[in-house]
Amino acid sequence: MTKRIRNIVVVVPARDEQSSIGRCLDALDAAAAALRQARPADGPDVRIVVVLDRCLDDTAEIVAGRSTVESVVSSAGRVGEARGLGVERGLAAGDAEPHETWIANTDADSAVPVDWLMVQLEAAEAGHSALLGAVRPDEEGLDAEQLAHYLLRHPLRESHRNVHGANLGVRADHYLAVGGFEPLTTGEDVRLVASLEQLGLSVASTGRAAVLTSSRLLGRAPEGYSDVVRAIAG
Fold first, then answer.
1. Average pLDDT of span 186-214
2. Assigned domain for 49 exists
């Protein structure tokens, strides 16, 4: 049975991402526009929340110039806490019940494809509790051989067990049932998915709508995605 989703809350933690936040928000605006065009009558409202986590650069000013985006300031310095604060803000501002709300997570150094929200919504309406999406590094900083090696080790297939905060969706009532994102410096996404599975909830995966993410070798979170890229780059 199709589940009615009335709200999608997009959460984007950001720390000193002035060089990439514009690309991120442009991509989210395009995905939201595509969803509205595809579902003009019954599509969900989309709310984008950027969490400014200890930003010292011009990220906040760039976000403030976007009429389609809300922001909230965090002093935590922990991505798990930042994500949780963004979810809290988005849920508080919405008028839908948690079981009618889908939380779509990405990162400020990433760019979602135009069909990203449609793929997220399909999973939500199919009754899944969460969707594990795929990511691929951008080509900046990686040569063709390194990128091919990455895709060999991380193929964009439908069935996978990779958990990426840059491409992760979860239904709000089930998110709340497991206590949400833990206030961790890294691994909050993996911990959330493990908690959902411990309750026997449906966690789907897909290689569709893979999110383009930074190939930088020094990331914001310890033992995060940048470690994977650094291992490939040698």
1. 96
2. yes
